[in-house]
TrEMBL record:
Protein name: Phosphoheptose isomerase
GO molecular function: carbohydrate derivative binding; isomerase activity
Alphabetized SUPFAM superfamilies for the sequence: SIS domain
PANTHER family named among the record's database cross-references: PHOSPHOHEPTOSE ISOMERASE, SEDOHEPTULOSE 7-PHOSPHATE ISOMERASE / DNAA INITIATOR-ASSOCIATING FACTOR FOR REPLICATION INITIATION
Keywords for the protein's UniProt record, in alphabetical order: Isomerase
PROSITE patterns for this protein: SIS
InterPro entries noted in UniProt: SIS_dom, SIS_dom_sf, SIS_GmhA/DiaA_subfam
Region forming the signal peptide: none
Domain SIS: from-to ranges: 37-100
Gene Ontology biological-process entries: carbohydrate derivative metabolic process
Species this protein is from: Klebsiella variicola
Amino acid sequence: MYQDLIRNELNEAAETLANFLQDEANIHAIQRAAVLLADSFKAGGKVLSCGNGGSHCDAMHLAEELTGRYRENRPGYPAIAISDVSHLSCVSNDFGYEYV
């Protein structure tokens, strides 16, 4: 019943990824980001990630992958998603959402 829908969605995702990979600028941008992160960690820096709505879930996932193990056992990297719900709701309630 849903097989055609599932197949179409997966084909669309594959096509989007293929198009992304064809643009060499995308590969270079990812490499620059990776080098920036690595250099920051080597210099004692950390990653603070944030987002709004579903993007915040991505921010939390990024921080989790950096602080935990990603594909192999390794020391965690310093990272945190800025997601203190009590602070966010306090500031938005007391001052306004534009201050969060």
